Amino acid sequence: QLMRELRPEVTVSNFVGVTPLGIGAWLRRVPVRVCWYHTVSDSIATDRTSGSRLDGLAIAARRGRKRAVYRLHTDVAAVSQAAAEDYRAIYGSLGPAVTVQHNGVVDLGGTRSVSAADGPVLAIGRLDPSKGHRLLVEAVGLSRSRRRLVICGEGPERPALEQLAAARGVDLEL
Predict the structure, then answer these.
(1) This prediction's pTM
(2) Is the pLDDT score of 167 beyond 80?
(3) What is the DSSP track for 38-96?
Protein backbone atom coordinates (compact mmCIF):
# COMPACT_ATOMS: atom_id res chain seq x y z
CA GLN A 1 0.00 0.00 0.00
CA LEU A 2 2.84 2.42 0.84
CA MET A 3 4.54 1.74 -2.49
CA ARG A 4 1.33 2.58 -4.31
CA GLU A 5 0.70 5.75 -2.28
CA LEU A 6 4.25 7.11 -2.14
CA ARG A 7 5.64 5.98 -5.52
CA PRO A 8 9.28 6.17 -4.38
CA GLU A 9 12.09 6.26 -6.90
CA VAL A 10 14.64 4.88 -4.45
CA THR A 11 14.36 2.24 -1.74
CA VAL A 12 17.08 1.17 0.69
CA SER A 13 16.50 -1.95 2.76
CA ASN A 14 18.37 -3.79 5.47
CA PHE A 15 18.03 -7.14 7.26
CA VAL A 16 14.40 -8.30 7.45
CA GLY A 17 13.28 -5.32 5.37
CA VAL A 18 15.14 -6.70 2.33
CA THR A 19 12.43 -9.22 1.50
CA PRO A 20 9.20 -7.21 1.84
CA LEU A 21 10.64 -3.92 0.60
CA GLY A 22 12.58 -5.62 -2.20
CA ILE A 23 9.54 -7.48 -3.48
CA GLY A 24 7.26 -4.45 -3.11
CA ALA A 25 9.71 -2.13 -4.85
CA TRP A 26 10.27 -4.59 -7.68
CA LEU A 27 6.54 -5.09 -8.19
CA ARG A 28 5.98 -1.31 -8.24
CA ARG A 29 8.94 -0.87 -10.62
CA VAL A 30 10.93 1.43 -8.33
CA PRO A 31 13.95 2.45 -10.47
CA VAL A 32 16.63 2.19 -7.75
CA ARG A 33 16.39 -0.65 -5.21
CA VAL A 34 19.37 -0.91 -2.87
CA CYS A 35 19.79 -3.51 -0.15
CA TRP A 36 22.50 -3.72 2.49
CA TYR A 37 24.37 -6.99 2.71
CA HIS A 38 25.91 -8.29 5.91
CA THR A 39 27.80 -11.57 5.94
CA VAL A 40 25.28 -14.42 6.09
CA SER A 41 27.51 -17.47 5.91
CA ASP A 42 28.13 -17.03 9.65
CA SER A 43 24.39 -16.93 10.37
CA ILE A 44 23.83 -20.02 8.22
CA ALA A 45 26.64 -21.81 10.11
CA THR A 46 25.09 -20.69 13.41
CA ASP A 47 21.76 -22.16 12.32
CA ARG A 48 23.51 -25.50 11.87
CA THR A 49 25.10 -25.46 15.30
CA SER A 50 22.55 -23.65 17.44
CA GLY A 51 20.21 -26.59 17.74
CA SER A 52 17.69 -25.17 15.26
CA ARG A 53 17.81 -28.45 13.26
CA LEU A 54 18.09 -26.86 9.85
CA ASP A 55 19.19 -29.60 7.51
CA GLY A 56 20.91 -29.22 4.16
CA LEU A 57 17.64 -28.92 2.26
CA ALA A 58 16.36 -26.14 4.52
CA ILE A 59 19.64 -24.25 4.18
CA ALA A 60 19.53 -24.62 0.39
CA ALA A 61 15.92 -23.35 0.37
CA ARG A 62 16.90 -20.36 2.52
CA ARG A 63 19.78 -19.50 0.18
CA GLY A 64 17.51 -19.87 -2.84
CA ARG A 65 14.93 -17.51 -1.36
CA LYS A 66 17.60 -14.96 -0.47
CA ARG A 67 19.19 -15.27 -3.92
CA ALA A 68 15.83 -14.55 -5.56
CA VAL A 69 15.17 -11.56 -3.30
CA TYR A 70 18.64 -10.05 -3.76
CA ARG A 71 18.23 -10.29 -7.53
CA LEU A 72 15.13 -8.11 -7.31
CA HIS A 73 17.38 -5.21 -6.25
CA THR A 74 19.36 -3.00 -8.61
CA ASP A 75 22.29 -2.67 -6.20
CA VAL A 76 23.75 -4.45 -3.18
CA ALA A 77 25.77 -2.41 -0.68
CA ALA A 78 28.11 -4.74 1.21
CA VAL A 79 29.30 -3.47 4.60
CA SER A 80 32.87 -4.71 4.00
CA GLN A 81 35.07 -6.35 1.39
CA ALA A 82 34.60 -9.63 3.28
CA ALA A 83 30.81 -9.23 3.01
CA ALA A 84 31.09 -8.57 -0.74
CA GLU A 85 33.21 -11.70 -1.16
CA ASP A 86 30.74 -13.66 0.99
CA TYR A 87 27.86 -12.47 -1.21
CA ARG A 88 29.67 -13.51 -4.39
CA ALA A 89 30.67 -16.89 -2.88
CA ILE A 90 27.10 -17.70 -1.84
CA TYR A 91 25.09 -16.10 -4.65
CA GLY A 92 27.54 -15.87 -7.52
CA SER A 93 28.21 -12.88 -9.73
CA LEU A 94 24.79 -12.80 -11.40
CA GLY A 95 22.31 -10.22 -10.27
CA PRO A 96 22.73 -6.70 -8.95
CA ALA A 97 25.96 -4.75 -8.77
CA VAL A 98 27.80 -5.22 -5.46
CA THR A 99 29.68 -2.27 -4.00
CA VAL A 100 31.53 -2.02 -0.70
CA GLN A 101 30.34 0.79 1.57
CA HIS A 102 32.65 0.84 4.60
CA ASN A 103 31.18 3.96 6.14
CA GLY A 104 27.54 3.02 5.77
CA VAL A 105 26.76 5.58 3.05
CA VAL A 106 25.37 4.30 -0.23
CA ASP A 107 27.34 5.93 -3.05
CA LEU A 108 26.31 4.51 -6.38
CA GLY A 109 28.91 6.62 -8.14
CA GLY A 110 26.47 8.06 -10.65
CA THR A 111 25.62 4.59 -11.95
CA ARG A 112 21.93 5.07 -11.16
CA SER A 113 19.76 8.09 -11.55
CA VAL A 114 16.32 9.17 -10.50
CA SER A 115 14.13 11.77 -12.09
CA ALA A 116 13.99 15.36 -10.94
CA ALA A 117 10.51 14.73 -9.53
CA ASP A 118 10.16 15.20 -5.81
CA GLY A 119 8.99 11.68 -4.93
CA PRO A 120 9.68 10.48 -1.40
CA VAL A 121 12.55 8.38 -0.10
CA LEU A 122 11.24 5.29 1.70
CA ALA A 123 13.12 3.28 4.32
CA ILE A 124 12.01 0.41 6.52
CA GLY A 125 13.73 -0.48 9.76
CA ARG A 126 13.74 -0.35 13.52
CA LEU A 127 14.38 3.21 14.73
CA ASP A 128 17.66 2.51 16.46
CA PRO A 129 20.98 4.38 16.25
CA SER A 130 22.64 1.29 14.75
CA LYS A 131 20.43 1.53 11.67
CA GLY A 132 21.84 4.85 10.47
CA HIS A 133 18.57 6.70 9.99
CA ARG A 134 20.17 9.91 11.29
CA LEU A 135 22.54 9.82 8.34
CA LEU A 136 19.59 9.37 6.00
CA VAL A 137 17.82 12.39 7.53
CA GLU A 138 21.04 14.44 7.16
CA ALA A 139 21.43 13.36 3.52
CA VAL A 140 17.84 14.25 2.63
CA GLY A 141 18.33 17.59 4.39
CA LEU A 142 21.38 18.31 2.24
CA SER A 143 19.80 17.24 -1.05
CA ARG A 144 18.74 19.89 -3.51
CA SER A 145 15.43 18.21 -4.27
CA ARG A 146 14.24 18.23 -0.64
CA ARG A 147 12.34 14.96 -1.03
CA ARG A 148 9.99 13.78 1.67
CA LEU A 149 11.45 11.02 3.83
CA VAL A 150 9.20 8.20 5.01
CA ILE A 151 10.64 5.69 7.50
CA CYS A 152 8.47 2.72 8.47
CA GLY A 153 9.48 1.49 11.90
CA GLU A 154 9.35 2.04 15.61
CA GLY A 155 12.06 2.34 18.21
CA PRO A 156 13.89 4.45 20.73
CA GLU A 157 15.40 6.85 18.19
CA ARG A 158 12.02 8.24 17.07
CA PRO A 159 12.16 11.49 19.13
CA ALA A 160 15.76 12.18 18.07
CA LEU A 161 14.91 11.64 14.39
CA GLU A 162 11.89 13.93 14.63
CA GLN A 163 14.02 16.61 16.28
CA LEU A 164 16.83 16.26 13.73
CA ALA A 165 14.37 16.39 10.81
CA ALA A 166 12.80 19.57 12.19
CA ALA A 167 16.24 21.14 12.60
CA ARG A 168 17.29 20.21 9.04
CA GLY A 169 13.98 21.15 7.42
CA VAL A 170 13.25 17.57 6.37
CA ASP A 171 9.65 16.53 5.74
CA LEU A 172 9.79 13.33 7.80
CA GLU A 173 6.97 10.84 8.23
CA LEU A 174 7.49 8.02 10.72
Answers:
(1) 0.61
(2) yes
(3) ---HHHHHHHHHTT----HHHHHHHHHHHHHHHTTSSEEEESSHHHHHHHHHHH-S-SS
